[in-house]
Design a protein that fits this description.
This protein is α+β, with helices and mostly antiparallel strands and 134 residues long. It has helices spanning 86-94, 98-118; strands spanning 2-4, 7-10, 15-17, 25-31, 33-38, 46-52, 56-57, 72-75, 79-85. The protein has one domain (2-120): Jelly Rolls (Sandwich), CATH 2.60.120. β5 (33-38) and β6 (46-52) form a beta hairpin.
Amino acid sequence: MNEQSGRFTFEQNESLLKEGDTGDFAYLIISGKVNIVKGVLSNTPVTLAVVGKGEVVGEMSMFDDDHPHMASAIAAEKTITTRISREQFQARLESMDPVMRGIMKLLGQRIRRMVADLTVEEVNVDWGNWRKSP
């Protein structure tokens, strides 16, 4: 990552965010593309989305302090972003109408549940004890 004048440049295959890390920032994509990948270090990674110009990554972990990033964001090509801190995000969220703020938090919880349901658990096969079914 290279920072210049409030813009952050990520080279292809460089991580903007890592699954499981605490989220301190959300990134607005100015140019480039980013792969959103669940289980990047597993044997069965799942690409949830490819996002680009005008889209945001890392916003889900801005809603609450006790949830880390639920996926990794990896630059698919050279990507330029700007970022918003957790404090800035929370201040803007708190300035919203309370009903809309509640709806936003509910949507965040639903998305987390949906992504958790998409996660494929790794299956370990004990080939030494494998037997052909009769």
